[in-house]
Amino acid sequence: MPFSRSEPHPHSDRSSRPENSAADLLRVAGRLAAGSQTLRAAAVMLGLAEPQPAATPSPRPPAPPPATPRPPLARDRHPRWTGQVEDTVAEVRPAGDDHRTVRPARLDPVESPSTEPPRPAIRSVRDLFPPPATEPSRPPVPLFEPAHQRAVLSTLVSVDRAGNELDFDTLVERIATRQPIGQPPRLPAPTTRLGVQLLLDRRPAMDPFRHDQRMLTAALRLVVGVDLVEVLAVRGGLDRAVPLSGIRRKPVPYRPGLGPRAILLASDLGIARQATGRDTTWQADWERLAERATEAGAPLVVLNPYPPARWPGWAVRAMTVMHWDRSADAGQARQAARRAAAFARIRP
Amino acid sequence: MTDYTKIFNPPLVPAPPHAPLAGLPEQVGDRAAAIGYVYDEDLVLAVNVALATGRPLLLRGRPGTGKSSVARNVALHLKRRFYPRTVTSRTQARDLLWTVDDVSRLSDATAKDQQVGERADYVEPGVLWWAFAPGTAAARRGIPDPNEGEPDAAEAVVLLDEIDKADPDVPNDLLEPLGLYWFRDIRGDVVKASTAPLIILTTNEERDLPKAFLRRCVSHTLPLPSRGKLRQIAEVRFGPDGSGLYDEVVQVLTAAEENEPEAGVDVSIAEFLDAVSAARQLGIRPGNPHWDMLLEATTAKPVKPHPPGAS
């Protein structure tokens, strides 16, 4: 809120009312002479209790407690060598000119007297380390610290536009130099009302961050508003960006939005593939993106999950990069937004 | 059967049709919708909890479920002053407290023979100032009281409609005025409410609201209306239905709803009432060649064509 320095903050005495608490429930009990049922409902409305789940029509009797699992034995974890050959296992050809087919020996566990169902054959690493499907699912954790995420994102996508406060310095200057005053000049104020364009780097190197990209998209929609977030997936080059926001899913050439709408790119900028020495094509695309953003006057910030020490020099010079990590806070976001605005030469 | 004493105790279903009350502004649009409001017990309890705790009441729910109409009706029943304000993407928290008409001051300064006062003389009170302290608000330069409720009542109801449209910082900037019921004006003087107003906020949940803000509100989600409730609302608004019109419109709208569950379209009370009102006033009934067009014009969702020959 743009309060000028000469004016007091309208509620500058910081003694805000505490959050909802049991005291509020006591007020309800006192003023409404509420019974237990009403108090329970009031506690839910005040956010002090979770709503009760809907009653099931025919509650089942409680299941018997599961039998105590016996501790795993060493022989269960490491099957014994039996010397038998598994016919169904894929053939393996030895290297070199020797084309004789060699059939690998089968690892066959020795039968144990246990009554447990037979264990499935181990055919791949996934069998040894199955995905933790049976574990209780934990809530996904975003790359940004959850407590800071809202502040970080709203800062990154805010753009300075003319606010409600008059810009007296400019106004006096215009009057003093006898310039016409058509529109009274206003002081800039950050706003998210222009929305944001989110580009998701969908190359295979970014696969480990696919879930983080999804969470980033959801978080942005909550902060900025669903209709104000345009999401584009970039996999086959910048000329083949796929819109993910609307119904259309056909690749289209990339275009920045109209005016100084913020652009976020979630990308490693080729770091993962550079490590293997194979990535040379994407640098040109991202440099072109930075040029297009500057031409459009749109602030571009790249969210990079790798640490700053690994960021490519060309990227640091051409655009604003921010570490997409738990260490990021609103202060860093402000710095990044300021730098991006300077690149875009934004004038409110 | 309730187990509490209600401060706010409206009839759940007003007598049909509800006559416009004397002394109120012209009853059109949402103003008329607010008069014949059909409550459910949960909503009545939410209003009572907000009144008992002095907390803002945050109403959630899909568009068209009657969130905005609640505040006007509550003010009507409690005989309070009423100050509605629709929040937009440009609204700043201070706009709800006060604004300064700098352009008028500049105009006065450039006009001949015009006395120009201090900047504070050009302050215009916002809805919260009017709700908290109407006496000091009225003392400001030439702005009439925007009260749309009971005149001269001591207490007020404020509607801050669609708070989720505002920039993310705005709800946090309102924590103290909405929690403590005071703020400072441009001179630094305290503007304080002598009695706690009831603040009702609505959100379509297009954006997430700050958790610190949510933790200081009484929160209630208005459910989507059932077919029975839609019929009930129409009876309250227009009187009993002898021709089956209400059922027919309900049937068409909810049939379209069932056809497209994944599209996320809901039966909006406002759309339903528009369809019924237009059909009544224009004499268009099911089977009329204009029936489908009327429904398409008054509702945002695709409507199943009426079977030919059916009446």
Note the topology.
The complex is a heterodimer of chains A (348) and B (311).
Chain A: H1 22-32, H2 36-45, H3 74-77, E1 81-85, E2 105-107, H4 125-128, H5 146-157, E3 159-166, H6 168-176, E4 186-191, E5 196-201, H7 210-224, E6 229-234, E7 241-243, E8 262-266, H8 271-274, H9 282-296, E9 300-304, H10 313-318, E10 320-323, H11 330-344
Parallel strand pairs in A: 5-6, 5-8, 8-9, 9-10
Antiparallel strand pairs in A: 1-2, 3-4, 6-7
Chain B: H1 30-35, H2 41-53, E1 57-60, H3 67-78, E2 81-86, E3 98-100, H4 102-110, E4 123-125, H5 127-132, H6 134-138, E5 156-161, H7 169-173, H8 175-180, E6 182-184, E7 190-192, E8 198-202, H9 211-214, E9 218-221, H10 227-238, H11 245-259, H12 269-282, H13 291-298
Parallel strand pairs in B: 1-8, 1-9, 2-5, 5-8
Antiparallel strand pairs in B: 3-4, 6-7
Helix pairs in contact in B: 10-11, 10-12, 11-12, 12-13
Structural account:
The complex is a heterodimer of chains A (348) and B (311). Chain A is built from 11 helices and 10 strands. Chain A is α/β, with parallel strands linked by helices and 348 residues long. In chain A, the strands form 3 sheets. In chain A, strands 7-6-5-8-9-10 form a 6-stranded mixed β-sheet, sandwiched between helices. In chain A, strands 1-2 form a two-stranded antiparallel ribbon. In chain A, strands 3-4 form a two-stranded antiparallel sheet. The longest helix of chain A has 15 residues, at 210-224. Chain A is globular. With 311 residues, chain B is of the alpha/beta class. Chain B is built from 13 helices and 9 strands. In chain B, the strands form 3 sheets. A 5-stranded parallel β-sheet of chain B has the order 2-5-8-1-9. In chain B, strands 3-4 form a two-stranded antiparallel sheet. In chain B, strands 6-7 form a two-stranded antiparallel ribbon. In chain B, helix 10 (227-238) packs antiparallel against helix 11 (245-259) and helix 10 (227-238) crosses helix 12.
